[in-house]
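Case study.
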Amino acid sequence: MSDIKEIPASTLAAFGIIGGLVGIYLSPYFPAAGALGAICAVIWASEAVRRVSKYGLGTGVPSIGQIAMGMGIVASMFGLAIMHTIPLAGPIVALLTASVIGLIIGWFAQNVIKMKIPVMIRCMTEIAAAGSLIIVGFSAAVAGGFEFKQLLHSVFDNGIMLIAFWVGAVAILHPFNAVLGPDEKQKRLLYLAGSTGAITMAILGIAAMMTLGNSGIITLLLGVILWLIFYKLFWDEVYKDAAAVVGTGLIPRTEA
Amino acid sequence: MVLDLTMSMAILALMGALATIAGCLEDLESDVGSQSNPNSQVQLAPQMNFLHRIYNKAVSGEPVSNGMSAVISGTVTVVLLDKGFFLLTAIALGALVGAIVLGIFATTSYAGRVASQARFKQPLYMDIMRYTTPSIISHNFIMNVCLVSLAYIQCVVLGHPFPIPFLALVWGITAGAVGSSVGDVHYGAEREFQNREFGCGLNTALSGRIVIKAESGLRNSIDNVWFCAKYGGPVTGLGLGLVVFLSSWPATIIQPRTIDDFWLTIIIGLIIVVLLGIAHRLVEYSINNAYGPYKEEKNEKEAAA
Amino acid sequence: MATELLLLSLQEILFIAISGTLICIAVHFVPVGGAPAAMAQATGIGTGTVELAAGSGLVGLLTASYMYSSVPDAPMALVLAAGAIGSMTMMAVTMFFGGLVYAYGVGVPFASAQVKKDPITGARQDIYMSKGTQGQGLPMVCYVSGLIGGALGGIGGAMIYFALESIYKPLIGESAPAVAGIFTMGVFYVNAVIASYGVGGTIEGFHDPKFRRVLPKDTLTAFIVSLLCGVVAVLIAWGMV
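After joint prediction, the assembly is written out as follows.
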């Protein structure tokens, strides 16, 4: 990965979908896998947010993360609930439902509200789909599985679903918002996305200590280790990209 | 839990006080980190050749970031309570985790935004990073303690059907919304452009030309929060405190038993809203008279000359 | 039992579609000036459209859900009124204290850039506008517009909650408030963001020419999207049976 070439969007989409689904399906045996899959989806979604926000949404970057998670939670719970007789089909139906609703909203935003952003429809679909994988993945890490009745008792009743919803939304929208500027680089953004996803995983590990017992500690430790790795990589990029990183100093004289 | 009138009033007063402190600290935390809307000027300044030593915390808008730290604090508190910790210890530890997470997000945004402004030669000052971030964490910690306590009282003592993390999230979002609407104006319109004439809005031509030299030395975020704590912070606190207090006051006073009693609480709420509207009109009328118009003054001066 | 559930489902889907549209309309009434307003460069509250509408709507959701659980067999009108009053209280207090900061912290009179005279009080606006700005503060018409927006948003949020609770309560009992509350939040944010895209981030209220221009297409979008979300949310009940 050189500095000039960027990772293509389709590669990241494949990474997000395959990683997310594999993680969700492994979660009944190894709950932390659900969170790892969700981190793949976070990285995918933050790249999609970057593509659509570069055109200027007018209302700020956070709105697209919130609409994606709002759609994502209703669509993903629909997919899991409606397929409760065939549990294995649940996550796929959740992904498809979220994609369809995202497609419709993107179509309306582009053609009825006339936002004039070329990539709007594709990016809205991608962000909604990633949103559903993030919610199901993180909830599966806390509930120890992705069946609807399990989620109802372990994640909804005590309010832990809101961590997956809200901190998941911030994990998607913070990376681009934090590196906004004319010299923004994709590599820094992707490392930051991994870091925010890892923080969400660590928090959900703490929550899983209540619902699952000791396997929550594995999720917490993995989350902290991943965060340390991605945070260090992010800071290396910052030292490379910034004009100057100084211990202290006066304001430099510029040709004004 | 069914409470008598004295106990209900005491709980309500406690909730109002907690919300007041939370609102004040929320606004001050957004001022010490320069978050949300006034941050657009801090972001614009290097482009106008106004390099600065102000912390550029861009964690996506105050309701979102305060909601995030509140919900994390609420969840960790619930987990610790489940393990048998004492209530105040659980709330304090939960608030600490939420505040530290927010601090991490703040460091990444300052570093990321400055790194993306490399072409304007804006340096990344590590000493600003080192002493402002703990300030952000400590302000947010106090806010989290107040909001999670508020959520706990509502859920356990008053019997609200929502779980504690949900209530903490909603109050975090509300604190962010009130702080962003009320206190940020004092920071953005007044402190960031303090070298301009008092009593006028910001001329579009002056965008990005923020104050970079302080009373002594160079302006940084700690100076900014010192100023805003004199007016913007307390007013925001009063705002959030009254939101919590007034939304529950009619029901506490009436102690409703029948459906008609509940309709009476609705009517009282409506009267409160109308009274606030009248107060707003009185403020608008009195300042229009006190300050006078901008353009008529100019005409009078020309006529006199 | 199946036909009863089907009829109830259709009714609740319609309620959710209507309330989503109400939320979208409510966001158009709330006077928001975005980043310029926070610098006293534009009229309105200095925050984002989604943030303020969501904040007030969620306070309305809290008061409505508390009313629903305190009163056995609460009539829908009472729950909606509780949501409206909670939301209006938050908007009223926020706008009043925001006005205090503009008046005494920054020292500017309130003025709107879109009209020459305030439609409600008749006060002149253009002579009180600071040089180089698009108005500042919260004139009375913006205040009233914000209250209407708060009321509609509170009603919309409470209606979604009422509809989902009616469907989920017989099926999952204890868990119903949390599930219905979280879904209400999701649908709330979807509609608030749709309105925010249509408005483009800033609007002064119902007296703004932008209001008449963008409202029809935003209402249509919100109705269809909320209908879709309603179908999905209600069908989840079939998975709980």
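Observations recorded in class. Residues 300-305 of chain B have pLDDT under 50 and may be disordered. Residues 183 and 235 of chain B are 7 Å apart (CA to CA). We will return to this complex in the next lecture.
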